[in-house]
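User: Run a structure prediction on this.
Assistant: Running it now.
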Amino acid sequence: MIKSELVARLAQRYPHLYHRDVERIVTTVLDEIAKALALGKRVELRGFGAFSVKARPARMGRNPRTGEPVKVDEKRAPFFRTGKELREKLNNDRSHASP
């Protein structure tokens, strides 16, 4: 599902809200999560999961074409850990499981 599909589903589910307001709400929530992660904070949505930032240390890599060593700088990457309720829903709800 992409963001526009999420907005459309929520607008359909809550017809008393304007589509533009639903879009603004979804965008605001996602922006706030991104801002918190950029500041190195952890964002926990109980029952769903937690977003955090993991630091990947600098290392020596290899250029795949030439095989020469290449210095790879330290990086920060977003990390998501599922919550217990989401994990249980994914593992117990077999009605949507692929064959």
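Helices lie at 3-13, 19-38, 84-92.
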